[in-house]
Amino acid sequence: MSERFDCREAFQRTLIDLATHDERIVAVCNDSVGSSKLGAFQNAFPDRLINVGIAEQNMVGVGAGLANGGRIPFVSGAAPFLTGRALEQIKADVAYSNTNVKLCGQSPGMAYGELGPTHHSIEDLAWLRAIANLPVIVPADPVETEAVIRWAAATEGPVFIRIGRIPVRAIHGPEYTFRLGVATTLREGTDISIIACGTMVERALDAATLLAGHGVQARVLNMTTVRPLDREAIVKAASETGAIVTVEEHTVYGGLGGAVAEVVATECPVSMRLMGVPGVFAPTGSVEALFTRFALTPAGIAESALLLRRAAA
């Protein structure tokens, strides 16, 4: 079995390296040094980690103030609390004010499993995607996570980065370069397209392998940037494969699937199936049990793709 990685480790290693070479870089967290994997950063730069306690609204405001003072703050906290509790501050203090704040939503989706619905972050893409001037990025593996963190540090302006907790294998090589708003085609195919982000990308690739056993050649796109979308790649996939399945660790309302559907409906209508959490509160349970419940497995994705192809034929 391929080695698997916690993308939070790539986040903290990259942040330490960047901070070593740029004293403007600071970290701000909400009593989440451990869950954000910031312990090593705190040890290396004790005066450059600001822990505001369980006060997410204050945390985002502090980040905005630091940015206005010339720092480059990486504001890090569990995704459900960073985005849910501090949504107004994200809108007003970061996006509307165009401050150079890097929002890092840790352990998104259903990564907290047994802690249940209060800790599942399955709405964050929907409500953040609606905010103007805020890129929304969902890395799929540790290589992409590092590339996105480096891009964010070097790019002026606000950004939200969804950093996964669930171990994934590396799907990108060391030569990978992140470009905002550009999808990566990981597998070519002409029969159907699977568009995924984050933890679902490796599962989409595995589903494509299963589909090949049924004689179906699936194109797999890693849609790292949920806002702005790679509209060209979506239209190309729709026109060349005739059907699209979207897969995300998120509600099917307003996230990646909804974003892709907006493009498809207005530019190249084809049959679609949106896979994710179907408009319910995800219950308490292990991560794998939850993924199985919502068919977010390679077999579940492959079956959904086969059903869509038959329906579209």
**Superfamily (CATH H level) name of the largest domain:** Thiamin diphosphate (ThDP)-binding fold, Pyr/PP domains
Main beta-sheet annotation: 7 strands, mixed
The CATH topology of the largest domain comes to: Rossmann fold
Helix/sheet category: alpha/beta
Measured between the Cα atoms of the first and last residue, the distance is 36 Å
CATH-level-2 architecture of the largest domain: 3-Layer(aba) Sandwich
Give the radius of gyration: 19 Å
Q: How many structural domains in the coordinates?
A: 2
Strand content: 15-25%
Number of helices: 12
User: What is the average of the pLDDT values?
Assistant: 97
Point out poorly predicted stretches.
none
Question: How is this structure best described in words?
Answer:
With 313 residues, the protein is of the alpha/beta class. It folds into 2 domains: 7-163, Thiamin diphosphate (ThDP)-binding fold, Pyr/PP domains (Rossmann fold, 3-Layer(aba) Sandwich); 184-312, Rossmann fold. Helices cover 41% and strands 19% of the residues. The protein has 12 helices and 12 strands. It has helices at residues 7-21, 39-44, 56-68, 79-85, 87-96, 124-129, 142-154, 200-212, 231-241, 256-267, 287-293, 298-312; strands at residues 25-29, 49-51, 72-78, 102-106, 136-137, 159-163, 184-187, 192-196, 218-222, 225-227, 243-251, 271-277. A 7-stranded mixed sheet has the order 2-1-3-4-6-5-10, with helices on both faces. Strand 1 (25-29), helix 2 (39-44) and strand 2 form a beta-alpha-beta unit. Helix 8 packs across helix 12. It is globular and about 60 Å long. The two termini are 36 Å apart. The model has no long low-confidence stretch (mean pLDDT 97).
